[in-house]
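Let's do one together. I've listed all components of the complex below, 235 residues spread over two lines.
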Amino acid sequence: SSELTQGPAVSVALGQTVTITCQGASLRTFYASWYQQKPGQAPVLVFYGKTNRPSGISDRFSGSSSGDTASLTITGAQAEDEADYFCNSRGNSDIHPVVFGGGTKLTVL
Amino acid sequence: QVQLVQSGPEVKKPGASLKVSCRASGYNLIDYSLYWVRQAPGQGLEWVGWINPKTGETKYAWSFQGRVTLTSDTSNNIVYMEMSRLTSEDTAVYYCARDQPPLYEDWVVKTWIDPWGQGTLVTVSA
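Okay, and this is what the predicted structure of the assembly comes out as:
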């Protein structure tokens, strides 16, 4: 089982804003990083840390964190944003030193 | 540009062993640790283990202890993942990915994984 909890699916109307959340005890110590994965492709980093967006990633993607919950927000969602999104952080124990969320499937309507 | 290129797809029988390679280019392999992460069909991401190519230090997820070995060939910028005693439940896409060393930002640690290899499909079937 994942040490980070994500909702399985969310949908958003084209051009609207959507937030994907990730909850876990390790997020009190570590920022989440977020990955976008499209079918048949490897995950791609889209946001990490408090305010960091990799070069080449749209500024539609932003992140935030509060307590044990991290959020990824897509402002003005586009059709190409439809994908699975995974959160990740270091874990708080030797049993789970690296943890992933179960993933959230985003559908853009 | 920084890139991780993995070896091709594999088909194995139950009980067999597997060795997947991950070649780094665009940077020096010893400067970053590497993760291996797998994804079963239709499932999420599962961390397999981690290797520091500079020191050879490794750490494995508990569910893979004793069955997975990560090694590195620093002269050729390659990391390997070996997995033994394969079962059908090991059928998955296996990714190598570069780990970024932890940094502090506002008293909280940030880490990230970038880039990822293209993935290697491993099929275990009788």
